[in-house]
Amino acid sequence: MLSVTLPRVALRSAAPARQWASAAQSVRYASTLKDAVAQVIPEKQEQLKALKAKHNNSSLGEVKLENLLGGMRGLKCMLWEGSVLDSERGIAFHGRSIPDCEKELPTAKDLGLKGKEMLPESMLWLLLTGKVPSVDEVRGLSAELAEKGKLPNYVEKIIDSFPKTLHPMTQFSAAVAALNHDSAFSAAYNKGIKKSEYWSPTYDDVITLIAKIPAIAARIYYNVFGKGDGKQAIDPSNDLIGNYANMIGYGDHEGMTDYLRLYIAIHGDHEGGNVSAHTLHLVGSALSDPFLSYSAGLAGLAGPLHGLANQEVLGFCLGLQKAVGENASDEKVKEHLWSTLNSGRVVPGYGHAVLRSTDPRFLALSRFCDTRPELQKDSLVQLVQQLARVAPGVLTEHGKTKNPNPNVDSASGCVLYSYGMTEFKYYTVVFGISRALALTQLVWDRAYGMGIERPKSFSVDALQKMLK
């Protein structure tokens, strides 16, 4: 609930006991990851304190007009703990590349489940602590998420009340925001919690939200498209995505289930500057709870310049397949690409706002396709792989693309389609499930005591006067 019946000063003076801590600790496994985070925070706080003391006035670079007019691209002005994106090497999670994570993070097989891909729970642990979890730690975290995964009745009723014609992302954002009703952070803040302890109820909300997101997404899938079990049943012995796959009707499909694990693990955090991550961080900087912050991030993800990219790629590939036929030669594909470029259109799925080399996330998905016989036989997947060979040369010759290499969107939606999920409008919801892992930054924002984000803005007239 958003309303506050007592003034903040009165709440501070009351200074009640910290009741917010008991909820998570009363549940089996609930304190395991939280204890790990609590151990890491003091050291990181001291590291930041020392950095501020020594370098608070050090310059990180100058701001140019092109930065201001170009969406602040390239400006070094955000603290983001979980990942750093390098233009050549790609994303690294606490210094670990995607290949590193694939080797080191516990997998479905490690937990005795069907499948071989790393689990999003493993990535969640890494993002929050900077450390690779043990198999038992991941098993405990999976059990905690399953225990907290059921939706409250009021949220189910809200989702069921939506018209089927309402976009799935609108439903997703609204349902997530409604979970704010039970926010541990909001309750603790209204009771007068100390600023140094903000991170703890924020953590509780983040874990609760991540646990419930699959059920929200699955209920929307069932209501809009009529697919799935319609009950959002949760098996306590299954992992987060194993349960999600069951809910949407793919529980017996090992390939799709394992693909969703990989997809969600590698899409979860991609530095803080992208729209969805930046938005949830910005809204969270006002001390909005994680449910409202993530809901805002989903609204950003729904935009065609962000989360819809894999749909555009899929549409392009299906159109290309229709135009050139299956098993077309490289020359035929090149002709179609040149026709696209010469007409003033772009080839979607190539290039990246930051990367200047092949997206490691694309390489991970491509590697997955290489391990699945059913995908190697699929004509659409074969076309995606053919494009990855052919398109960079055409785009390089064309000369207007800074990075002619494939990004993650060039493959991600096409594999979903090949596995039978043909509902284009739902793809961004799947992306949204993964982006929930970026909520880990809110825990760090509160642990570091970060202030409200408030950059300086200028009018065109003011800029003209300044730049005379």
UniProtKB/TrEMBL annotation:
<dbReference type="InterPro" id="IPR019810">
    <property type="entry name" value="Citrate_synthase_AS"/>
</dbReference>
<dbReference type="GO" id="GO:0005759">
    <property type="term" value="C:mitochondrial matrix"/>
</dbReference>
<comment type="similarity">
    <text>Belongs to the citrate synthase family.</text>
</comment>
<dbReference type="InterPro" id="IPR016143">
    <property type="entry name" value="Citrate_synth-like_sm_a-sub"/>
</dbReference>
<dbReference type="GO" id="GO:0005975">
    <property type="term" value="P:carbohydrate metabolic process"/>
</dbReference>
<dbReference type="InterPro" id="IPR036969">
    <property type="entry name" value="Citrate_synthase_sf"/>
</dbReference>
<dbReference type="GO" id="GO:0046912">
    <property type="term" value="F:acyltransferase activity, acyl groups converted into alkyl on transfer"/>
</dbReference>
<keyword id="KW-0809">Transit peptide</keyword>
<protein>
    <recommendedName>
        <fullName>Citrate synthase</fullName>
    </recommendedName>
</protein>
<dbReference type="Pfam" id="PF00285">
    <property type="entry name" value="Citrate_synt"/>
</dbReference>
<keyword id="KW-0496">Mitochondrion</keyword>
<dbReference type="InterPro" id="IPR016142">
    <property type="entry name" value="Citrate_synth-like_lrg_a-sub"/>
</dbReference>
<keyword id="KW-0808">Transferase</keyword>
<dbReference type="GO" id="GO:0006099">
    <property type="term" value="P:tricarboxylic acid cycle"/>
</dbReference>
<dbReference type="InterPro" id="IPR002020">
    <property type="entry name" value="Citrate_synthase"/>
</dbReference>
